[in-house]
Write a structure and sequence with these properties.
Blueprint (H helix, E strand, L loop, with lengths): L2 E4 L28 E5 L3 E3 L14 E6 L11 E5 L14 E4 L2 E4 L9 E5 L3 E4 L2 E4 L2 E6 L5 E3 L2 E4 L12 E5 L6 E4 L2 E4 L10 E9 L2 E4 L2 E4 L11 E8 L15 E4 L2 E2 L4 E6 L5 E3 L9 E6 L6 E2 L2 E3 L16 E6 L7 E2 L2 E3 L20 E6 L6 E3 L2 E3 L6 E3 L13 E3 L2 E3 L6 E2 L6 E2 L3 E5 L7 E4 L2 E3 L3 E5 L6 E4 L2 E3 L4 E5 L5 E2 L2 E2 L5 E4 L2 H5 L6 E3 L23 H8 L5 H9 L1
Parallel strand pairs: 1-2, 2-4, 3-5, 4-6, 5-7, 6-9, 7-10, 8-11, 9-12, 10-13, 11-14, 12-15, 13-16, 14-17, 15-18, 16-19, 17-20, 18-21, 19-22, 20-23, 21-24, 23-25, 24-27, 25-28, 26-29, 27-30, 28-31, 30-32, 31-34, 32-35, 33-36, 34-39, 35-40, 36-41, 39-42, 40-43, 41-44, 42-45, 43-46, 44-47, ...
Antiparallel strand pairs: 37-38, 48-49
Length: about 575
């Protein structure tokens, strides 16, 4: 093991000491565990030597150095031109650390997943600048990789066929204990469906992964026209359970503190379970802020999605959906189930009609395509053009699409921008803040929510059953508080006396207008005058109204499960 100094500005080629550095990378010694230091402010152009991998406790390192008068100079540049770093997909360098260097690559031939370097196990890349028109980093069947605090600009090539991403960790065997943290990434629009920014996916479950505090934006500074690109894509993770005695202390797959904007999805969890998704800012993405899907072969369950900001989802452009948080089971029984969505700000979703040009987009939280058994509570949802919370059992609904508990959410002025045929012959219809469709099977509870404004607050359609609506506060709806086929399960709600109708029928389903006839003036135990609907309590975050609804017995975790089982 030796420390080797390279000063590309040196007049003569020395012996590699700091007093007599090499002035070229060509011919440097390549022993395992060597530390290579290129002088700050210098620039290498050309093929890079094939350095030996390190070993455990004896890591090969490539970094910078400076003297007292050069520490202010920029990182040393390693320009490898139309080539990649030595190593192969199945033979990458291992036990290697790259730190504080600027690596540049520009490929003349556009191809899928050709990176600056192939990443092997026990590799760290930290505090570097990485620039390429294709993929930046690709690791196959690798574990214990750390990608930390880098500035990455990549995937800027013009292509719709070659898969180009920023960071890919993938494999047919286990890939665990990888950390991607505090990177700043600028991504181009290139690549087909399935090209993402940070993409971690394996053919066996990922049991340990941390993707945290990354900032992801488009290289153009504009919303990406790509049809599919997610900022963070995780395929088939299966973390430790988050709802046992130790709670989130046991979390082993974590997506947290990331800031993703102007892509299609902020965070996309595909067939993944027990992932802790928290404190992310995923505003201004085209389809979904947080997107979770499962299928029959690999169901998704037990994720905790909390304290995220998922605002301004959607664009005035097809085919983007515009949903802050979307859970989808693909119309398969128990394919997406048992998730908890709590304490998120899911506001201002835009309804441009989605792929089908209908009124079901611009949604705050979507429990879609037979998603079942989820708890949704304590969320703030404001100004969505479509539903604040939407249930849909799927085109062909399986036997059980219910079992949800929707409790203690604070919903303000939602459903006011819902159009039929928006892109062709738009008709403004209005829609309910909370809406069910084909919600069947296990008991679904909609309780103790505060819903202010909009045309209507809750809609239980004729295709849904075993839905209970109670303990909610309805204020300032312009048409009615509830639309339903019957009053079964509707009780003990509190209505603002100014609402024209307490419970309306479902004629709006037939004629597409928000003018249902009066079905009922209420149910058992209803109130039409209460401090909770008094104008003195302003509908703002942190107001006495919100504080009161949380202090007055909103049921959380164990009690919420009892509500479903009752």
């Amino acid at each position: 093991m030796a420390t080797v100094y390279i000063d590309l500005s040196a007049a003569t080629n020395g012996n590699g000491t700091i007093e007599s550095p090499y002035n070229t990378w060509a011919g440097v010694p390549t022993g395992a565990g060597n530390v290579y230091r290129q002088k700050r402010g210098t620039w290498w152009n050309g093929a890079f030597p094939s350095l030996s991998s390190g070993t455990s406790g004896n890591v090969t390192t490539i970094t910078s150095y400076g003297t007292a008068d050069t520490l202010w100079l920029p990182q040393p540049i390693i320009g490898i031109g139309d080539s990649i770093m030595p190593g192969t997909l199945n033979g990458p360098k291992t036990f290697t650390k790259w730190s504080d260097v600027d690596i540049r690559c520009e490929r003349s031939t556009v191809a899928s997943d050709v990176p600056i370097m192939w990443v092997g196990s026990d590799v760290e890349i930290s505090d570097c600048t990485l620039t390429t028109n294709l993929t930046a980093l690709y690791g196959e069947k690798c574990s214990r990789v750390k990608i930390l605090r880098n500035k990455i600009k990549c995937a800027t090539a013009t292509t719709t066929t070659a898969s180009i991403n920023a960071i890919v960790l993938a494999g047919s065997t286990a890939i665990d204990d990888n950390v991607i943290d505090r990177n700043e990434i600028l991504i181009g629009d290139g690549g087909p469906a399935g090209a993402h920014v940070i993409k971690v996916s394996a053919a066996v479950p990922i049991t340990s992964l941390q993707v945290t505090n990354n900032r992801i934006r488009t290289a153009s500074g504009q919303p990406s026209p790509h049809p599919d690109k997610a900022g963070i894509y995780i395929g088939w993770a299966n973390g430790e359970g988050l709802f046992g005695p130790t709670g989130t202390a046991a979390a082993s797959v974590i997506v947290a503190g990331n800031d993703v904007a102007d892509l299609v999805d902020g965070v996309f969890l595909y067939t993944s379970s027990s992932v802790w998704v928290h404190h992310n800012r995923v505003d201004n993405n085209g389809s979904f802020g947080v997107h979770v899907t499962g299928n029959a072969a690999h169901p998704s369950s037990g994720c905790l999605i909390e304290f995220n900001k998922c605002r301004w989802a959607g664009r005035n452009l097809a085919p983007f959906y515009g949903r802050g948080i979307e859970l989808s089971a693909g119309s398969k029984l128990n394919a997406c189930t048992g998730h908890v969505v709590r304490f998120n700000d899911v506001s201002y979703a835009k309804n441009w009609g989605g792929p089908l040009d209908n009124i079901t987009e611009g949604v705050g939280i979507g429990l879609d395509d037979a998603t079942s058994g989820c708890q949704v509570y304590g969320n703030l949802i404001r100004g969505t053009e479509g539903n604040a919370i939407q249930f849909y059992g799927g085109t062909t609904a399986p036997a059980d699409t219910g079992g949800h508990v929707i409790v203690g959410n604070f919903i303000i002025e939602c459903g006011l921008g819902s159009y039929r045929n928006r892109r062709t012959t738009p008709t403004l219809t209005g829609c309910a803040a909370i809406s069910t469709s084909k919600t069947l099977g296990s008991r679904t509870v909609i309780a103790y929510n505060v819903i202010i404004g909009g045309t209507s607050a809750v809609r239980v359609d004729a295709s849904s059953s075993n839905v209970e609506v109670y303990g909610n506060v309805f204020k300032r709806q312009t048409v009615c508080a509830i639309t339903a086929g019957s009053t079964t399960g509707i009780r003990d709600n509190c209505y603002d006396p100014s609402i024209p109708k307490q419970i309306g029928n479902l004629t709006m389903d037939g004629n597409g207008t928000p003018t249902p006839a009066l079905l009922s003036t209420g149910g058992s135990g209803d109130k039409t005058a209460n401090v909770l609907v008094d104008d003195a309590f302003v509908a703002l975050t942190g107001s006495p109204l919100l504080d009161m609804i949380f202090r007055k017995g909103v049921p959380f975790a164990p009690l919420m499960l009892d509500l479903v089982d009752a």
